[in-house]
Amino acid sequence: MAENLANVLHEQLSEGFPDTHRNNSGEGADRRRVVEGVDQELNGQPPSARPSQRLESEEDEDEELTLKYGAKHVIMLFVPVTLCMVVVVATIKSVSFYTQKDGQLIYTPFPEDTETVGQRALNSILNAAIMISVIIVMTLLLVVLYKYRCYKVIHGWLIISSLLLLFFFSFIYLGEVFKTYNVGMDYITLALIIWNFGVVGMICIHWKGPLHLQQAYLIMISALMALVFIKYLPEWTAWLILAVISVYDLVAVLCPKGPLRMLVETAQERNEPIFPALIYSSTMVWLVNMADTDAESRKKPALNSTTPESQAAPSQSTQGPDDGGFTTDWELRQQETLGHMESSEETRRQVQEMPSARPPAIQSDDSEERGVKLGLGDFIFYSVLVGKASATASGDWNTTLACFVAILIGLCLTLLLLAIFKKALPALPISITFGLVFYFATDNLVRPFMDQLALHQFYI
Amino acid sequence: MTTSVFFGCTFIAFGPAISLFLFTIARDPLRVIFLIAGAFFWLVSLLLSSLVWFIAVQISNKENASVQKGLLIFGVVLSVLLQETFRFSYYKLLKRANEGLMALSQEDAMPISIRQLAYVSGLGFGFMSGAFSVVNILADSLGPGTVGIHGDSQHYFVSSAFMTMAIILLHMFWGVVFFDACEKKRWWAVVIVVLSHLLVSCLSFLNPQYEGSLIPAYVVMCVMGMWAFSSAGGSFRNLKLCLTCRDKDFLLANHRPR
């Protein structure tokens, strides 16, 4: 089940544009608010009077910022993808457990050690078909649950799968690493280590934690998941699954009725971030607890009150009914004890000019920084490709290197398309296609050539 | 065949390249991207040349050793020519992309200059070329075995490492000279780059007589290094100023007192 869970919401790539998350004060909305405030200050007209001019200048600024920060975003994704692949390849090369044949998953019931090539091909096609249909069913289930707001079920599902990954799979991984390096370890120390690792992981992923720690945990669980796939998927099945899943990804994210597209659009409509447990984000997400909608509404009047208002009365009247929890007799009592306190324009401007304390959840140093998000499934499948290449290729390191570079270039091209089209895009198709092409080409064509060259010590 | 051989050869082969990467390229994301793109282009050129070689081998007589060696030599020459062709096409692509970027952003300055691109792309080619030449050899050097037990040269690992270092640095110098020559439309310089690449590769046919292959390769590397330095705008005067810490522009740019 855990495998499917990680598969389910994976292939999307979206960029947190403030246009669609206006009430989220993360990722550049600060700058946007200052721009709006300045506009209001200048004209004294309500902001709705001049929408078109502001939109144009925003679009120009958008273009410039996109180009300037595009390269930075690419590197922000290159580093974790590279780290995940390095962890997987290092494990495959050193721990022999993950290259041993110990059976297959129940989702791939047909064996691949058959007599004829045709039988093997047929078995792998059937395996891939079963796996892909399981993934499709799980994705649809997740989208249905999300649409009908069964948040508790989704949360429970995600928590169970992260528990499985963080405790059970990492226990097995640690055990195999100890076996490889012949390290003796008692159960008490092991229990302490695994307990701490798992609990901190659960907290970081599902609740709050330092950004880098959360990113590190997401990379680790992606690597663990990828190792499980590499171990239990036979060769031809694995390549077929990779090919078919990139096609599915393309369809699911780009077609109007595709499940992943519907998921992203529903999340954007409701102004909620998509589950942090399934997405790697390069900047902090402001609203960590998605089910807590009271916190969201309570934040809105607090945010609006920090922008300078040239017209106190009309804008205040829109906030009238929501008194933020301060009942009238509380206010009367406060006025009796502390005297009449009411903020006027001058006091508000003075407060505004004082150095404001940043809300603690925003940890990006650059207020103009916008993050890029990559689904964990993308990490998993990239690592599966590179891991399988290093496990099974006879060309060894050349094939691994070639697949690695191909995947990075595919990711770069995908991000370039993201900068052009500015909507959620599938991250798998281009990278996996390049990776597969380079794997088969390098293993079959380049390897004999380089072997001959190395034998004679010729250099090209 | 020990870890010391492994580490020694790794640092010999990749030391200069990794230091160049860490000190000049790692901080700037745009340069890293163009480095990886350069590596990709080299990889594609290798793929095409291996395809042609593979087809030639399949249709030829596999028993005849001299025919196979001849085909290998043909493969090497073809690979060198394809690499330079792909270097040229990378140059064209970068020019067009830079023009597009400039038109889009309406800024006066390009985000990255063509000289930086020449350096970065040359290093990308070098990294990939060096990696493909030497990584399998390095991995083997960790395992058990005896070098040259059948009468082959005992200096296999060290000579491979030195040759790889020369090739990586040569690719970088070739990149700088090539792009500069394309910018100034000096086609004779392009031809000289291609010919020197062919020379270095063909000298490797003399292996295992390392005096015949390594020493000329290093001589070519020094010559190309000086040429690249002067085409990038360096001169003896610049070098003197830089080494005695009196170059005002450099000091200003790095906020250091004289």
From TrEMBL, chain A:
Disordered as annotated region, ranges: 1-60, 297-368
E.C. number(s) listed in UniProt: 3.4.23.-
Stretches that traverse the bilayer: 74-92, 125-146, 153-175, 187-205, 212-230, 236-255, 401-421, 427-446
EC top class, as a word: hydrolase
Comment text on domains: The PAL motif is required for normal active site conformation.
Family designation: Belongs to the peptidase A22A family.
This protein's name: Presenilin
Automatic annotation (TrEMBL), chain B:
Keyword Membrane: yes
Subcellular location: Membrane
Keywords: Membrane, Notch signaling pathway, Transmembrane, Transmembrane helix
Membrane association type: Multi-pass membrane protein
UniProt keyword annotation of Transmembrane present: yes
PANTHER family (UniProt xref): GAMMA-SECRETASE SUBUNIT APH-1 (PTHR12889)
Protein name: Gamma-secretase subunit APH-1
